Amino acid sequence: MTRILDISVSGVLLVTGVAFFAMTFGDAFDVPTFGGDVGPAFAPRIFLTIWIVLSSVTLIQAIRSGAPEESEVKLVQMIALVAIVCATGFAITKIGFVFATVPGFAVFCWIFQYRKPVPLVVLSVLAPLAIWALFTFGFELLLPRSPWFHQI
């Protein structure tokens, strides 16, 4: 069961990554730059290339694996993960990246049995802030901001 799940998930991720990568060559990404060296499709193509490579490696590993493991697939955790990702993604559009991902990350860790209170709180706050800082200052790509703090 685990092998089939690995093949299915990595296959879907591979097909989705290839489809998204192909979409970056569409008219929506064909806009003039504002004096920069690269256009708006540069960063998505880099991220999608990494996505495609990782999902390809995972798919190849899943296909080449021998007998399936006897570990039990925890369907409840998988459904909870999908619900957390969907809720966090929706919340990002309404309340901004940081305010949505802090509780999303905390719930994700809690569902997967990481329940030490102090490290959980620290990781739940610092990880989204680090990602936000990387995108804002490193990649210079603005993530969705909170409607309450337009100046941040």
Q: How would you characterize the largest beta sheet? A: none
Helices and strands: which structural class?
Answer: mainly alpha
Structure summary, number of beta strands: 0
Radius of gyration: 19 Å
Average residue pLDDT: 81
Percent range for helical residues? 55-70%
Oligomer state equals: single chain
What series of H and E elements makes up the topology? HHHHH
Sum up the overall morphology in one term. flat
Pick out the low-confidence regions.
none
Tally of structural domains: 2
The N- and C-terminal alpha carbons lie at a distance of: 47 Å
What is the overall number of helices? 5
% residues in beta strands: under 5%
What does this structure look like?
The chain has 152 residues and is mainly α. It has 2 domains: 71 residues, no CATH class; 79 residues, no CATH class. Helix content is 68%, strand content 0%. The protein has 5 helices and no strands. Helix 3 runs antiparallel to helix 4.
